[in-house]
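> call design_seq(struct)
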């Protein structure tokens, strides 16, 4: 292969790669990205049940939404 055909393949690869993605999200698409099902804690009752199961399994509770390093200082 000479350098012209390899440069053509390289140019084709760059053009194909550049056409694969978009850099912005259109306003009409934001509705679907902010859907309630896309959140982990959308169902508070299910989240409370999961916390209850984890607390029973791990033998510990608390630690949600609090700050501190774990040394007992707070």
């Amino acid at each position: 292969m000479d350098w012209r055909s390899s440069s053509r393949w390289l140019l084709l690869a760059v053009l194909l790669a550049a056409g694969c993605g978009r850099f912005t999200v259109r306003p009409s698409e934001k509705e679907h990205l902010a859907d309630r099902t896309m959140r982990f804690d959308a169902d508070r009752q299910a989240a409370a049940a999961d916390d209850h199961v984890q607390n029973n399994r791990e033998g510990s509770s608390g630690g949600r939404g609090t700050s501190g390093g774990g040394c007992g200082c707070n």
